[in-house]
Amino acid sequence: MRLDKLTLKAQEAMAEMQDIARRLEHQRLDGEHLLLALLSQKDGIAPALIETSGGNPGEISRSLETALAAQAKVSG
């Protein structure tokens, strides 16, 4: 995938997704990493879409963090 072809917000989300996985010591990237990255973006569209549909972005972020914390870690 050529990251230079993505929008700036998409590039930022990809970088944040990798940072989240690295911080949590995960070997692979999953949709949960991406969604958490999208929800953490300032002025991002994901939180607004969730709120518009009646959801709570903060609650979803907390659930994602819990789910990600339960995934296997890689060390060494």
Radius of gyration: 13 Å
Based on Cα principal axes, name the global outline: flat
Work out the helicity level: 55-70%
Total discrete domains: 1
Q: State the total count of DSSP E strands.
A: 0
Explain this structure.
The chain has helices spanning 8-23, 31-39, 45-52, 57-69. By secondary structure, it is mainly alpha-helical. It has one domain. The relative contact order is 0.16.
Please give a handful of descriptors for the protein shown.
single chain; 76 residues; mainly alpha; 4 helices; flat
Please provide a brief summary of the model.
The chain is an all-alpha fold and 76 residues long. It has four helices and no strands. It has one domain (8-69).
Question: What topology emerges from the helices and strands here?
Answer:
Layout: H1 8-23, H2 31-39, H3 45-52, H4 57-69
Helix pairs in contact: 1-2, 2-4
